[in-house]
Design a protein that fits this description.
2 copies of one chain form a homodimer. The first copy, chain A, is an alpha/beta fold. Helices cover about 30% and strands about 25% of the residues of chain A. Chain A has 11 helices and 14 strands. The termini of chain A are far apart. At the A-B interface, strand 11, strand 12, strand 13 and strand 14 of A face strand 11, strand 12, strand 13 and strand 14 of B. Strand 12 of chain A pairs antiparallel with strand 13 of chain B.
């Protein structure tokens, strides 16, 4: 009895380690797969890694198919029978742009499926278990579920609400100004700017207000020496403005080579309606708010911001450009799951936003 | 040659280690010794610690005298001859409230004096070397000088400028407000409050504006379960107000048992003049600014703040109570030598202030 308990224990711990290995692979797809989730998979037989893979982008094979193909390519086709696949998300069981992964797993003769989190879509949740078990495959879900859920937070939010996950990114001085004394709009140091561009790399869209377009004429692209993976397009640039007539037509976002990825929304009242459209029509899962204090206030008042990334620069200068304008919010927000770190001469405070 | 070089090297490294040991002792006096500096000393003969001590408070013996007395008390009186004393600051060589330490060292037969930083007062600097050397004592100063200087920064500033070292302490939300949405003035969590009270313990005075007295009716004392060492008095409470008539006479700072330690300054224009008086008349070396955004602005505009301690709480709520009010400062400030750390649910950003 005891030795069998020990074996179970050892296997459980091995299962967790391999799911984390698959999660590492999934990271490579973060920001590239929308509207699909970034997923990773590894296939093992005993202690041998037969194949591994991750989902690269929508329309291309899922992580499970990538791992199977990798195993075949490495000459392990005959060993797949009786092997175990570890995947960070419950395998899909229905036809989408690609055939269901459950069928691929069954066809390959895999005998055990370990996965991280269940499908957040109630219509699909747990269906993989049924399909696989009825084909005689052993299935265990919920392994390192917390880690997998945290990683897929934006996508889960989108599946459950139909709206993109909104990250407010703020660069401000110690006294909460977004413009330095004297009028300099560039606040963050080099390292923090690079951090911001990595955030953009992991996002599908950047949203600013008309005022930012007029004042800063930003490019809103991924730069700062960051290598853009194959297949990753520049983020959508979205402008919320009271009147589109007042936007300069020669602004960079309207005249550069990505100008077909700039969307303007005028006098928006129904923010949530726009969010739904951004997901449905453009497949935007993660949206980065890089707006000033007035528009940020509108987003917070509507309770539509899920994550907060604040870059604090070591200046104190006063002035009228507050990171958040105006009187008390109707409902105060609080940051949880916070992380903080130094980034060059700046500090980064990051966390999840909720009502306090 | 080489072995003598090695010996020199070993001795230099031993000297540094013992100065740092003396500095540890000096820490115990921080905040208690004003207007004197906190100083520590250890006496060694070869590898044996004969005695150690630190300056407890003004009027009591200096660190060197405390270490000598400790050695005697431990029965090492006869061994002092030929020993080495390590002290964090150049020993005093003139009569103050106590006789000069150089004389005590000579009388005890100590043959070697190693000290950290030279006296910052130009009138005294280097005099100990001359006095001791003429009595045949070997002297070496400037050992771990940086560490000793950093530790004595407030006192050095005071000696050199005649003004207390001013620390601005700010407790604010992520969006730079000092009152939470809904009107709650208590922003920081328990751990950060404790941190604040430890800051008070290391300060000689706390300064607020009349508005803070009227709105918060603060006690401005050291509490939060912090043990107050023997001989440490509650800090002076200093109020800057436009009109003393408008301060409530039943405010805690005027009616509690420390009310004799409350000073009111009315319609101050010459902030520096008040600072000089606070040092000269009350021996205040470290002054903690705990004021609102309007008065803080006055202090920053006058360039009279040396250190900045900001406690950032995880709320976002908007509102009119900014940590720093008004338009651009005439001269922007920048924080250097920054430290940051999490403190319970809050974050602390601390550093030295200078013109950017």
């Amino acid at each position: 009895m005891e030795s069998s308990f020990r074996m179970d224990n050892a296997q459980a711990s091995q299962d967790r380690a391999r799911i984390l290995q698959a999660l590492e692979l999934a990271q490579r797809g973060f920001g590239l797969t929308s509207p699909n989730p970034p997923v990773g998979a590894v296939i093992y037989k005993d202690d041998r890694l037969l194949g591994s893979g991750y989902h690269h982008r929508a329309g291309e094979p899922h992580a499970e198919r990538m791992a199977l193909a990798d195993a075949v390519e490495k000459g392990h086709a005959n060993e797949l029978k009786g092997s175990t696949i570890y995947v960070t998300l419950e395998p899909c069981s229905s036809y989408g742009k690609t055939p269901p992964c459950t069928q691929g797993i069954i066809d390959a003769g895999i005998s055990r499926v370990i996965y991280g989190m269940v499908d957040p879509d109630e219509r699909h949740r747990g269906r993989a278990d049924a399909v696989l078990q009825s084909a005689g495959v052993e299935v265990k879900g919920g392994v390192e579920e917390e880690a997998c859920r945290a990683f897929l937070r934006p996508w889960i939010h989108t599946v459950c609400t139909g709206c993109p996950w909104v990250i407010a990114k703020i660069a401000a001085t110690l006294d909460g100004r977004i413009v330095r004394a004297g009028g300099e709009h560039r606040i963050s140091g080099e390292k923090a700017r690079k951090y911001t561009h990595r955030l953009r790399l992991r996002s599908d869209a950047i949203l600013v207000g008309g005022q930012t377009v007029r004042t800063d004429n930003p490019e809103l692209t991924i730069r700062c020496g960051i290598e853009i993976p194959d297949g990753k397009e520049q983020p959508w640039r979205i402008v919320f403005t009271r009147s589109a007539r007042h936007l300069p037509s020669d602004a960079k976002i309207f005249s550069d080579k990505h100008s077909n990825r700039t969307l303007v929304y005028e006098a928006v009242e129904d923010f949530q309606g726009v969010l739904r459209e951004l997901y449905k029509k453009y497949g935007i899962v993660t949206l980065l708010l890089e707006c000033g204090g007035h528009l940020l206030r509108e987003w917070l008042e509507r309770d539509l911001v899920q994550e907060w990334v604040q870059i604090v620069s070591p200046y104190i200068g006063g002035g009228d450009n507050l990171l958040l304008s105006g009187s008390d919010l109707r409902v105060e927000k609080i940051l949880s799951d916070t992380q903080t770190r130094r980034c060059g001469e700046d500090f980064i405070i990051r966390g999840l936003l909720s009502k306090s």
